[in-house]
Amino acid sequence: MSLKLTILGCHAALPRVNTNPTAQILEIKNKHFLIDCGEGTQVAMRKNKISFAKIQHIFISHLHGDHFFGLVGLISSLRLLNRKKELHIYGPPELENIIGIHFEASQSIIDFPLYFHHTQAIEKDIIYEDDKVEIQTIPLKHRIPTTGFLFKEKEGLRKLNIEAVEKNPEIQTCDYYNIKKGKDFIKENGEVIKNDLLTFSPNKPLSYAFCSDTSFNPEMIPQIHKVDLLYHESTFKQEHADVAHKTGHSTASEAATIAKKAKVERLVLGHFSNRYKELNSLLSEARAVFENVELAEEGKVFTID
Ligand SMILES: [Zn+2]
């Protein structure tokens, strides 16, 4: 089991030569999820060798331009690449019209199935589920309706204790699936072999929480409790807390406080204001509160095994 997060953009608002607005790719259980799609996302995907074809689900946190202005361009490229596979977009309801009007005006037909799934920022919602992964929205506090996203692996099958299994000649390969699902084995004479004698616990399911943009919001803490990786915006330093509060953003110290209170494993800071020429002071500010913290950076990969 592993989880891989590639940062495509992690700066606020105005792009600069080497920085992009928010976008990232999460690989979990062999699926690629695109989270936010700021301007420049397509180029960043090319640079980081992310296959366009592998993206089937796109999650947009909110409708400030630095989080979705790359989406029309990306969908347009998918058309040009003759995409036939479905594409699912999760985001605020208005997004469907915004995208639609671009393609209507240019009389371009999207000839692959495109599905919009409307999000709301009032309470958490399960917006995606398959047999291996569940994705929830995280209601955030920003100037317009905004959600983060919580990606959770589902618990896998139990692992066979091969030594124990092989000691019982009645157990056949065809019984393995039921045993891995947690069932006891019943011998022909009716004797029951308890499942915990035949298996080990499955690997711990991994989880990732994306929280941008938001002001300090302790309400999210129970939902992101003990996640393996938390990306939390830290647009400002504590000395600019007044601007952070006015604009619905967080400081590095506030992001670290959320990580600490939620007892997460690892914190990544992002969505940096372009007013800061160096970011190490944001890092040290956060580290004073929560030790296991790193800065996001375009092209940087965070892996959890
Ligand atoms: Zn915003």
Account of the protein in words:
With 305 residues, the chain is an alpha/beta fold. It has two domains: 3-156 and 203-304, Ribonuclease Z/Hydroxyacylglutathione hydrolase-like (Metallo-beta-lactamase, Chain A), CATH 3.60.15.10; 159-200, no CATH class. Helix content is 21%, strand content 27%. The chain has helices spanning 41-47, 71-80, 94-105, 162-166, 176-180, 241-247, 252-261, 280-287, and strands at residues 3-9, 23-28, 31-37, 55-59, 87-91, 114-118, 126-129, 133-139, 147-153, 159-160, 185-186, 192-193, 199-200, 207-211, 229-233, 267-270, 293-295, 301-304. The strands form four sheets. It has a seven-stranded mixed β-sheet. It has a seven-stranded mixed β-sheet with strand order 7-8-9-14-15-16-17, with helices on one face. A hairpin with a 7-residue loop joins β8 and β9 (147-153). The radius of gyration is 22 Å and the shape is globular. The model has no long low-confidence stretch (mean pLDDT 95). Zinc ion is lined by residues 62, 64, 142, 213. Zinc ion binds next to loops.
Précis, in short:
This protein is α/β, with parallel strands linked by helices and 305 residues long. The model has no long low-confidence stretch (mean pLDDT 95).
